[in-house]
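Reading group handout, session on sequence-to-structure problems. Before we discuss, look at one worked example. The prompt was deliberately terse, the way you'd type it at a terminal:

> structure MurR/RpiR family transcriptional regulator

The input record follows.
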Amino acid sequence: MASPLFDIVARLRDIAENGQRSDQKVAAAVLADADFATHASIEKLAEKAGVSEPTITRFCRTLGFEGTRDFKVGLAQSLAIAGRFISVSTADGSASNGVPSIIASSAVSAIETVTNLIDRASLDRAAAIVAAAGMVRAYGSGGASSMAATELENRLFRLGLPASSHIDGEMQQMTAATSSKDTVIVAYSLSGEVRPVIDAVTIAGRYGAKTIAFTAANSSLAAAAQLVLPFHIEEGTNVYRPSPARYALLALTDMLAMSVAEKIGAPAVERMRRIKNLQGMQKSDAPNLPLGD
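And the output record:
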């Protein structure tokens, strides 16, 4: 069986361009209809590619598979994970304003999804835990989750809370090891299966930290955290559109930050006033600008 890290589609495309003539035919036939290739008999696949059945068997072994059965299993796994990126359809331009409308509608849909899913009691409990923290550390890896972690730090320091964000796995684990009972960890992960984040949350919990996770329900991170605010955003099929999950995570972060601000009350308002006062000294349109941006 080929290595789990083997990219079968990339190899097929390379063979389709640079392989021997017979192999080019097989690779091209598979790429033209990968779903057909995962279900077709060796006879049907050979017929579609215009080659002999032994050529199909030899082709599969060349790729590192024991035979056609293992090849089809590997191809099916690749399709299940990233099938929509193999045969890319034309971007949807049916919305009234094309791309702007597509982006706007997906952002609104993502925010509405988490708004409907959020458990108010859990959000309130998370806000109370954060508001009472001596130190808040936000963890996230990758694209959307690391952005949300950084944004949480940005929101909390304005309220007078000691906060830091860490998107490097090694730093996540090292800072987690310095945790104590007044430390709060807020972890973000769309999948809930990012090992360094899971490990950091587990480590911090062992040292008495309170751990909160915005992540997928029933994930490894959800199991590791003490308080979970679960969510899931459908990615859709348009591969040209950036993931709307970013908007969902920002909305969740704002929900938490506002809830924390309300719990802190007047002291938080005073700190925000200081920032706005500083803005007034440096920017002409300070009254109409967002706080600190």
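Points for discussion. First: The two ends are 53 Å apart (CA to CA). Second: The domain at 99-263 is CATH 3.40.50.10490 (Rossmann fold).
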